[in-house]
UniProtKB/TrEMBL annotation:
GO MF terms, alphabetically ordered: 1-acylglycerol-3-phosphate O-acyltransferase activity
Protein name stated in the entry: Acyl-CoA:1-acyl-sn-glycerol-3-phosphate acyltransferase
Domain Phospholipid/glycerol acyltransferase: 113-223
Keywords, sorted A to Z: Acyltransferase, Lipid biosynthesis, Lipid metabolism, Membrane, Transferase, Transmembrane, Transmembrane helix
Lineage, opening ranks: Bacteria, Pseudomonadati, Pseudomonadota, Alphaproteobacteria, Acetobacterales
InterPro entries, sorted: Plipid/glycerol_acylTrfase
Pfam families: Acyltransferase
Pathway: Lipid metabolism
EC number in record: 2.3.1.51
Sequence intervals crossing the membrane: 53-73
PANTHER family named among the record's database cross-references: 1-ACYL-SN-GLYCEROL-3-PHOSPHATE ACYLTRANSFERASE, 1-ACYL-SN-GLYCEROL-3-PHOSPHATE ACYLTRANSFERASE-RELATED
GO biological process, one term: phosphatidic acid biosynthetic process
Length: 314
């Protein structure tokens, strides 16, 4: 048998195809919508989103007159209904809420309580408002948003401009609310972010912390999407920051299912346990950041201990 010597490069060249025309495959099911069953669905969940948005709007329109009447009546009925409104709104938009820990407001002797939480989205108001008996401290721009300003006013929200010149007046407004027995929910980061980190707490926003009997750090993370653990790729779906508008953000979120938010309530402590508000901001920020990091890693989380006063450190 004759042996023909070939160059090594010839072995890498493809042989000549016997078929002159390339193979063409048809879709297994007729129609583009049926055939692309394994592709992305850019229009998926539209019916779910429309249903959730309509239900949320109708529930808000029903709740506004009820809360208006309760707003002018004595007692804590307006507080309980405000919490019921936020909790119901979370269920209507398909957001399940899990609470780990005990709110300090369960003890009447601990009121008023200043809750310090991380902030990544407008959803934080719904989640925390349905879990805690407290009103919010919000930026002044919210008071000019249509419909949202009415809901915020009925929720007894304290509006602050967060400017250096108005710090004293805003602290006095917060003290007035806490002097009346109202607990407050504050976002000391001063702004929202992409949900993948916790920004340093600003001590200038804690000028009224001395009016609270207890300070309780709170870690809030959106840790489920589609019933599965949320990863770094999923966090921008929940986060609301920069130039995002609520309408388009709500539309994208309302199309998805199986979302969950977890609230981790750490051990409360009296504000006088720490020497000044800078130390308070640093310690509360550390606790909130550590708790949020555990939740983002989808690990079992437990409330962290209260900071130890420096004078008691051995």
């Amino acid at each position: 048998m004759d042996v023909v010597a070939r160059a090594p490069i010839d072995a890498l060249r493809p042989r000549r195809l016997r078929r002159r025309r390339p193979l063409r495959f048809r879709q297994a099911l007729p129609g583009g919508h049926f055939g692309d069953i394994f592709g992305e669905r850019p229009l998926g969940g539209r019916v779910r989103a429309v249903r959730r948005m309509v239900m949320a709007l109708l529930w808000t329109l029903v709740a506004i007159p009820v809360q208006t009447v309760l707003h002018f009546l004595p007692g804590r009925a307006k507080v309980r209904f405000g919490r019921f409104y936020h909790a119901t709104l979370c269920r209507l938009i398909g957001l399940r809420v899990q609470v780990v820990g005990t709110p300090a407001t369960h003890d009447p002797a601990a009121r008023p309580v200043l809750f310090l939480s991380n902030h990544s989205s407008w959803l934080d108001v719904l989640v925390l408002g349905g879990a805690l008996d407290a009103c919010f401290v919000s930026k002044a721009e919210v008071s000019r948003w249509p419909l949202v300003n009415i809901v915020a006013w009925l929720g007894r929200t304290v509006f602050v401009s967060r400017s250096r010149g108005a710090t004293g007046r805003e602290a006095d407004a917060m003290r007035t609310h806490m002097a009346a027995g109202e607990s407050l929910i504050l976002f000391p980061e001063g702004t929202s972010n992409d949900g993948t980190r916790t920004l340093p707490f600003r001590s200038s926003l804690l000028g009224a912390a001395d009016a609270a009997r207890q300070v309780q750090p709170v870690s809030l993370v959106y840790d489920r999407l589609g019933g599965l653990p949320a990863c770094r790729r999923d966090r921008p779906l929940f986060a609301w920051y920069g130039d995002m508008d609520i309408g388009s953000h709500f539309w994208r979120l309302a199309r998805r299912s199986g979302a969950r938010a977890t609230i981790l309530l750490h051990e409360p402590f009296p504000p006088e346990a720490l020497p000044n508000r800078k130390v308070l901001a640093a310690e509360a920020g550390r606790i909130v950041a550590e708790g949020a990091a555990v939740l983002r890693q989808n690990r079992p989380a437990a409330p962290l201990a209260a900071p130890v006063p420096p004078k008691l450190v051995a």
